[in-house]
């Protein structure tokens, strides 16, 4: 990991140099090439898959009720935003700057020199990043993104981005069919190689199919979903991960603060600080939404002041209040009572002196990107819409069991957390919280369980799920329902359907283009994206 740490720092410098050269090509020296080898450029970009999403998820998690603030929040939790800063714009930066020219150079170097494994990985990551960015923001920069001769950039609608993502996915699969000019296995498997899959082409192909499955899953409200797109969801899920051991995750060694999990108390140089933001302190508080889901609220009534649950994931995913051993969370927008702070951080404690980590937030936890469990729930949803309730029920059960495996693989990395036993799993699967037959299965069973499986890491996919069902509490049981107040955020009492583009580039330099799309309207973030519309 020491090599990886050095490369991350070096790539950060390379990104800065590349950004400067975009405007200052007069300094280009052909005798000292500025282009890096694919082998050197890959690991830093994989680090930014975690760092870029984590930074934005600090705010998105509040909108989707994964996390809450210690203080009352009239910004993100009220479906608003913080004007005049880059909070909520790091995925944009990841795609256009941290990846940006670096990704293009990596793919160019790989294709020119027959490094087809690197080229395939590059196209896969590029497809994932652009899909993530358009899902968060709607229209984004596409064809002009890497044009270094431009000062201003045009946006393109989400359907065009989706089409290009599918093209890049095809390119990735095609690259993986070609033999590398030389054997790169030792490099790809080494500490400075491919951090996700160590160059395993079969797993990278499954990653690509996961991206495609999610894209078609987002089209739930289109007229062709039941007749066509649902079949595509099922097809690509079946081609993707076979179990939770194949999930896409970014590793962290945690030998020091420089290589600790980006969400942990010991993250790299506080790149992702979940305890303080520009407007709210201690943002990483557990919410009542997830506590209620894990204590009887999926199909029934949540236990009052719970100290245990038939759902074994409760004790593995979150800490209880140290005052009375009760599991509790903050109600979105209200915060923790001012007199006695009783709601723990996702790190596992209330007070800073005892922060150690919890679930996916230990220093050595792997950072999930895509999972088998979430794909099984996407498949269950698609089959349910098609009326194939028997197959939908099986995929639903696979999703629940898959998330139990996910917790055991990635959510018990420290502090003596015990893995979920088979007896605990069996008891839960036979409980009233799980639909026992296809006839009992409802869309709320699928989507609420998917919310649990994605809690605390898959912010964008949960955001997509909530939006396509318009935040319906009959679909997402225990989601706190309220009409956002028109305080500071300017959302005019409407729910959030997109994030504004990155402030420091778009609202400072690209304002005319934003105006064409309504991006200067105070309630722009409440306008539905193309994928969500009929």
Would you give an account of this structure?
The protein has 534 residues and is mainly α. The chain has a single domain, classed as Serine Threonine Protein Phosphatase 5, Tetratricopeptide repeat. It contains 17 helices and six strands. It has a two-stranded antiparallel sheet. The longest helix is centred in the N-terminal third of the chain and has 26 residues. The N and C termini lie far apart (47 Å).
Provide the spatial order of strands within the biggest beta sheet.
1-5
Mean pLDDT: 89
What percent of residues adopt helix (DSSP H or I)?
A: 40-55%
Report the CATH C-level class: Mainly Alpha
Helical segment count: 17
Outline of this structure?
This protein has a single domain (2-264, 364-532), classed as Serine Threonine Protein Phosphatase 5, Tetratricopeptide repeat, CATH 1.25.40. Helix content is 44%, strand content 3%.
Question: What would the keywords be for this entry?
Answer:
about 525 residues, Serine Threonine Protein Phosphatase 5, Tetratricopeptide repeat, mainly alpha, globular, 6 strands, two-stranded antiparallel ribbon, disordered N terminus
Which helices and strands, and how do they pair?
Blueprint: H1 2-21, H2 38-63, E1 67-68, H3 90-112, H4 116-137, E2 140-141, E3 155-156, H5 158-175, H6 185-189, H7 201-217, H8 225-239, E4 248-250, E5 285-286, H9 288-293, H10 313-317, E6 367-370, H11 372-386, H12 389-410, H13 422-429, H14 443-454, H15 459-468, H16 503-509, H17 511-516
Antiparallel strand pairs: 1-5, 2-3, 4-6
């Amino acid at each position: 990991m020491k090599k990886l740490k050095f490369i991350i720092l070096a790539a950060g410098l390379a990104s800065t140099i590349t950004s400067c050269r975009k405007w200052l090509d007069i300094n280009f020296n052909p005798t000292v090439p500025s282009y890096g080898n694919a082998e050197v450029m890959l690991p830093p970009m994989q680090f930014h898959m975690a760092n870029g999403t984590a930074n934005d998820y600090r705010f998105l998690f509040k909108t989707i009720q994964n996390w809450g603030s210690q203080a009352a929040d009239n910004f993100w939790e009220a479906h608003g935003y913080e004007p005049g800063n880059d909070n909520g714009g790091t995925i944009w930066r990841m795609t256009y700057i941290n990846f940006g020219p670096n990704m293009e150079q990596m793919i160019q170097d790989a294709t020119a020199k027959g490094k087809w494994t690197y080229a395939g990985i590059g196209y896969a990551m590029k497809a994932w990043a652009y899909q993530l960015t358009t899902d968060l923001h709607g229209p984004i920069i596409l064809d002009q993104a890497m044009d270094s001769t431009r000062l201003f950039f045009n946006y393109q609608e989400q359907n065009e981005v989706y089409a290009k993502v599918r093209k890049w996915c095809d390119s990735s699969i095609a690259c993986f069919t070609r033999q590398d000019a030389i054997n790169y296995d030792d490099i790809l498997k080494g500490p400075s190689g491919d951090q996700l899959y160590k160059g395993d082409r079969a797993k990278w192909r499954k990653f690509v199919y996961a991206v495609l499955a999610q894209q078609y899953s987002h089209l739930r409200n289109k007229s062709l979903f039941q007749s066509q797109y649902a079949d595509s969801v099922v097809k690509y899920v079946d081609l993707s991960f076979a179990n939770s051991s194949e999930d896409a995750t970014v590793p962290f060694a945690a030998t020091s603060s420089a290589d600790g999990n980006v969400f942990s108390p010991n993250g790299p140089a506080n790149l992702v600080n979940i305890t303080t933001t520009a407007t709210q302190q201690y943002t990483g508080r557990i919410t009542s939404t997830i506590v209620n889901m894990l204590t009887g609220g999926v199909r029934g009534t949540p236990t009052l002041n719970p100290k245990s649950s038939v759902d074994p994931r409760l004790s593995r995913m979150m800490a209880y209040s140290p005052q009375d051993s009760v599991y509790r969370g903050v109600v979105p927008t209200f915060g923790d009572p001012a007199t006695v702070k009783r709601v723990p951080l996702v790190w596992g404690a209330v007070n800073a002196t005892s922060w150690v980590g919890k679930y996916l937030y230990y220093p050595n936890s792997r950072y999930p990107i895509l999972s088998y469990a979430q794909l099984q729930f996407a498949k269950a949803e698609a089959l349910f819409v098609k009326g194939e309730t028997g197959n939908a029920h099986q995929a639903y059960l696979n999703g629940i069991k898959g998330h139990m495996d996910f917790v055991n693989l990635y959510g018990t990395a420290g502090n003596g957390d015990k893995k979920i036993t088979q007896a605990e799993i069996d008891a839960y699967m036979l409980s009233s919280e799980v639909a026992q037959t296809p006839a009992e299965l409802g869309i709320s069973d699928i989507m609420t369980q998917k919310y649990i499986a994605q809690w605390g890491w898959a912010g964008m996919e949960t955001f997509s799920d909530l939006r396509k069902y318009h935040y319906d509490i009959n679909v997402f049981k225990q989601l706190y329902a309220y009409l956002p107040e028109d305080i500071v955020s300017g959302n005019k009492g409407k729910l959030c359907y997109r994030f504004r583009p990155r402030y420091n580039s778009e609202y400072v330099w690209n304002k005319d283009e934003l105006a064409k799309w309504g991006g200067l309207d105070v309630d722009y973030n409440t306008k539905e994206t193309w994928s969500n519309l009929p």
